[in-house]
Every structure is written in structure tokens, then in C-alpha cells.
Design brief:
2 domains; 2 strands; mainly alpha; 9 helices; two-stranded antiparallel ribbon; 267 residues
């Protein structure tokens, strides 16, 4: 409320706010209309606590789940789905049964996804429960962390499906040297994932599966926590120490360098 001391000095009906007036192109601030005694400094402890928490969730989801478990679990489980049957000379016996060959491969992949997907889902729920307990805030359990973790699990399962089918195919084509090709492919995907986070505007990582999985997590984070972009900009504007800008970027190659006009208010 306006207490008569100039709390609404810019006469916009909102006490204690700051209006940034941009030029016609929206690239440069030409005027700042501030109210009297406006505190433009953020509560650093609250922002830092929230940013550290989000950075941990996003970083763990990307590095541990997508780039480690998602890439290397298929190397051990999916590579030998059919190849082992060929080496043990039992494939002909299995194919002699009245079952289509495509169904035989499909059932093997579905069994692999059921096992690996259940494992990932259990890990995700455990991590979501732990982080929701230690999250900053007044509530004992913060439920807003669960959609992000479930999104991480969904992205990881998609990665498991993609790499599982790919590794299984390589194992069939090159039974003897397929494991080496898969290791090289896994290293390539891991490096492309790192490039996605360190060089978000690069186009080469788009040729990898990990790039799109990480982009999916960025989009899920933006849906679950719409103010994540604001937190990232506040950290850059006030030089707050946070790894949020490293692990998270707005999804899409065009959003990092785009400029937009904004009216920022603080009460």
C-alpha cells in the first residue's frame, strides 16, 4: 500500500517496483523508473540455496542418469541380447519355433527395457524423495522436485531404448568386434553430451542421441520450474556463484543468444 512516502513514485499502481524502459529495438535500457526506497538487491542466501538445489538435481540427472547410466547400461545388457545366442549356437533352435524373427528381437528388447527401466525408475524415486526432504523451503517434502526427477527418468528410459536397439544391432552385425564399436560410440555420445552443456550453440552435438536427451531435460525443467530462466539471469546479473548456467540452458539452439525485452518488478 502507498503510505504517502513515495512508495509508488512511478505512478503505475504497484508500490515498490522498478520499470525498465527499452528502446524501439528492445536491445538497450533507455530509462529506469524506480519507486522510492526500492531494494533492488536479491536475497542472496535464498537465491543461492535454491540455485544450488536445482543445480544438483539437473546436474545429477544429466551426468549420472543420462550420460552415465543411459549410455553404458545398454553396453552390458543390450549388446548380447541376440549375439550370445549366436555364440552359444542356440539361435537356430529358438528360431525354429513358430515365432516371427522380428517378434523374437522385439521381446528381447522389451525385456531389457523392463529390467533397465524399472531400475532407473526406482533410482529416480529414491533421489526425488531424498532431494525433496533436503530442499530449501518451509514444507517438509517439496513435491515440485518430483516432476523434474520423473522427467529425468523418462529421458533416461528413452536413451536406454535408443542405445539398446543400436548396440543390439551392432552386436548382430559385428559379433566379434561389436563391443569395441559400442565403446567408441559410447565415448562419442558422452563427449557430445559435454559439448551440449559447454557449447550449447554448437551444431555438431545434434548428431548424437545424448544431445536431444539433455535438451528434453532442459525443457522439462522449464515446465516444472518456469522461473529457472529468471534464476539463471539473476545469477549472471549479480555475479552469484552457481553452476546453474553450466548444467541448464533454455532448450533450443536459438534461445541462448536471443534478446527479449522484459519488465522486471521487485517488491
Amino acid at each position: 500500500m502507498d503510505d504517502g512516502r513515495g512508495n509508488d513514485d512511478n505512478k503505475n499502481g504497484i508500490p515498490c517496483d522498478v520499470i525498465w524502459i527499452l528502446d524501439a529495438d528492445g536491445d538497450e535500457i533507455v530509462e529506469i523508473r524506480a519507486d522510492y526506497n526500492v531494494n533492488e538487491d536479491p536475497a542472496e542466501s535464498e537465491f543461492e540455496g535454491e540455485m544450488v538445489h536445482r543445480t544438483f538435481i539437473i546436474g545429477t540427472g544429466k551426468m549420472a542418469f543420462v550420460m552415465m547410466l543411459g549410455i553404458f547400461i545398454p553396453l552390458f545388457l543390450a549388446l548380447g541380447l541376440i549375439r550370445d545366442e549366436t555364440e552359444n549356437e542356440t539361435l537356430h533352435y529358438l528360431l525354429s519355433k513358430p515365432i516371427h524373427r522380428a517378434e523374437f528381437i522385439l521381446y528381447r528388447l522389451l525385456g531389457y527395457l523392463l529390467l533397465a527401466g524399472t531400475y532407473i525408475l526406482v533410482l529416480v524415486l529414491i533421489m526425488a524423495f531424498i532431494t525433496s526432504l533436503i530442499a530449501p523451503g518451509d514444507s517438509i517434502v517439496r513435491l515440485s522436485d518430483y516432476p523434474v526427477w520423473l522427467g529425468v527418468g523418462f529421458a533416461t528410459i528413452l536413451v536406454l531404448a535408443a542405445y539398446g536397439a543400436l548396440y543390439n544391432t551392432i552386436g548382430l552385425i559385428a559379433p566379434k568386434y561389436g563391443v569395441y564399436f559400442c565403446i567408441i560410440l559410447g565415448i562419442w555420445e558422452f563427449i557430445m553430451g559435454l559439448f551440449t552443456m559447454t557449447l550449447p550453440s554448437a551444431t555438431v552435438p545434434m548428431l548424437s542421441v545424448s544431445h536431444w536427451a539433455l535438451q528434453l531435460i532442459d525443457a522439462i525443467v522449464l515446465i516444472a520450474w518456469p522461473d529457472t530462466l529468471q534464476y539463471s539471469q539473476i545469477a549472471d546479473a549479480f555475479n552469484l556463484e552457481s553452476g546453474l548456467s553450466f548444467f541448464w540452458q533454455p532448450p533450443g539452439p536459438h534461445t541462448r543468444n536471443s534478446k527479449s525485452s522484459r519488465c522486471i518488478t521487485s517488491e
